[in-house]
Specification:
By secondary structure, this protein is mainly α. It has one domain: ABC transporter involved in vitamin B12 uptake, BtuC (Orthogonal Bundle). It is built from 13 helices and four strands. The strands form two sheets. It has a two-stranded antiparallel ribbon. The protein has a two-stranded antiparallel ribbon with strand order 2-3. Strand 2 and strand 3 form a beta hairpin. Helix 2 runs antiparallel to helix 3, helix 3 runs antiparallel to helix 9 and helix 3 crosses helix 11. The mean pLDDT is 89. This is ABC transporter permease. InterPro entries: ABC_transp_permease, LivM-like. One of its GO terms (molecular function) is branched-chain amino acid transmembrane transporter activity. Keywords: Cell membrane, Membrane, Transmembrane, Transmembrane helix.
């Protein structure tokens, strides 16, 4: 079997993520569970956004809206005394699907910069709605006293939460791979390249795009629900345009249209952020140029860079064979 960096590195990353709770227990450093739990959760959100940007060509600058909705479902339901995780999950999926359907129907009538601005506008509308909810913390956010309880399994336990989030990530990667390699994904990619031609061939591209938008919204909502259990806090900041910008940066840094790229991007971004914060509070001054350099080296991000290294290695092998 031929060795491939594009297969080996993501597999190694997932294996390392699976062993984080064990490492945290052996080193008696629970901080690692929080840090890598955040990485896994944001990887889920980034993978959901990659379905839109990388495969559908829909650059949503308001995707964090659904991250915030998932968090507020847990926060508000917990505030009124409902800690049933199945109820949290059902309401999160239903709410994100409904909001995604309505906002998607409006946003997808446009494209390009107009689409970006409309998705941003919707996210800001819900951001200010959350700020206005004074009963639920307003702009100060809403503390969450109790996490989601799934029968005998509670997400208050950091190890349980981590493995639940990791399992959700693995399911998203598996289901995403099946989806983008099926007819659905082919139509999405074709629409990204030439929407008019796809419609001329008889494909209802708006329906496919809307389905992708709603699915992406629901997955991102689940990530928001998990994040609320991790931080025990729901804040309007979860819906801010800066949060959406972070998700886009993770997708671009990792590699558009690759699914595993956003996982690499979220890990690289959050680990580098944590490292740089140890040296300076102005870490963004250093982090920004690093993203620019990565994109310049490979337009397909870090995952694409692995592919470039494989191509160079293959060329060297051919040169050696030709000389021999």
């Amino acid at each position: 079997m031929k060795f491939s960096l594009r297969t080996f590195v993501p597999a190694l990353l997932l294996a390392a993520l699976a062993l984080v709770p064990l490492y945290a227990w052996l080193t008696q450093q629970p901080f690692y569970l929080t840090l890598f739990g955040r990485i896994v959760i944001f990887a889920i959100a980034a993978v959901s956004l990659d379905l839109l940007i990388g495969y559908g060509g829909m650059v949503s600058f308001g995707h964090a809206l659904f991250l915030g909705l998932g968090a507020y479902v847990v926060g508000i339901m917990g505030y009124v005394g409902i800690d049933n995780g199945f109820a949290h999950l059902a309401v999160t999926l239903a709410l994100c699907a409904a909001v995604g359907l309505v906002t998607g129907l409006i946003s997808l009538r446009t494209s390009g910069v107009a689409f970006i601005m409309i998705t941003l506008a919707f996210a800001q509308m819900f951001y200010f709605l959350a700020v206005s909810l004074k009963r639920f913390g307003g702009d100060e956010g809403l503390p969450i006293a109790s996490g989601s309880h799934f029968g005998g399994v509670t997400l208050d336990n950091p190890n349980v939460l981590y493995y639940v989030a990791f399992a959700v990530l693995c399911v998203c990667l598996w289901a995403g791979a099946r989806m983008v390699n099926a007819r659905f994904g082919m139509v999405l990619r074709g629409s990204r390249q030439n929407d008019r031609r796809m419609r001329a061939l008889g494909f209802a591209t708006l329906r496919y795009k809307l389905a992708a938008y709603v699915i992406s919204a629901m997955v991102c909502g689940v990530a928001g629900m998990l994040n609320a259990n991790l931080t025990h806090f729901a804040s309007p900041a979860n819906m801010a345009w800066t949060a959406s910008g972070d998700l886009i940066a993770m997708v671009v840094l990792g590699g558009l249209g690759s699914l595993v790229g956003p996982v690499i991007g979220s890990a690289a971004m959050l680990l580098l952020e944590e490292l740089l914060k140890g040296y300076t509070e102005h870490w963004m001054i250093v982090f920004g140029p690093l993203i620019v350099v990565t994109v310049l080296l490979s337009r397909r991000g870090l995952y694409g860079l692995l592919g470039d290294l494989e191509v160079r290695r293959a060329r060297r092998a051919l040169q050696v064979e030709s000389k021999a």
